[in-house]
Amino acid sequence: MSDQTESPAAGEDTAGGAGPSGEAKPPLAVSAQYIKDLSFEAPNTPAILGRMQRESPEISINIDVRATGLQDGIYKVVLHIKSECKVAEAVAFIIELSYGGVFSVNVPAEQIQPVLLIECPRLLFPFARNIVADATRDGGFPPLMLGPVDFISMYRNQLQKQQQDAASDGAVPASEPAPSGGDGTENPN
To answer: Among residues 39, 65, 76, which one has the least CA distance to residue 184?
Structure first.
């Protein structure tokens, strides 16, 4: 006895996101990753280096995620990270990084926003974290090691903000946000 199955005709789409060859497409695939923009400034060096040894620095970190569609099922997601380090009101350094990725997304329409604004930045973050740490270390400072980021909370906060904005405008809130991101602020001190 043999077990035979019929495969779909060439070009025929099957349920579950299978392609013409009958193989299931992955729900999320990274096509490319890149540095879109990187800026590091240390306006008060070398004098600030001695002050950092005597006084504790204040570090502010802001993280934002933006997503846009490129073509059917292909999206660009950019993780924006900005950090400013001050010692007694003097700027030690400012670093800004925009780190992007191109993703193939094969999920139902109602899941696209959470995938783009939670899962995609979660995949990009370790690489962006490494770039920030290397840039600050190469700039003569201790490496800035970013802590874990809760992209789920960022996404939920963005949804709440959009619903509050819609309610204050008298509009009916949308069920899904526009494909942009939320932002998160982290202050390790």
So the answer is: 65
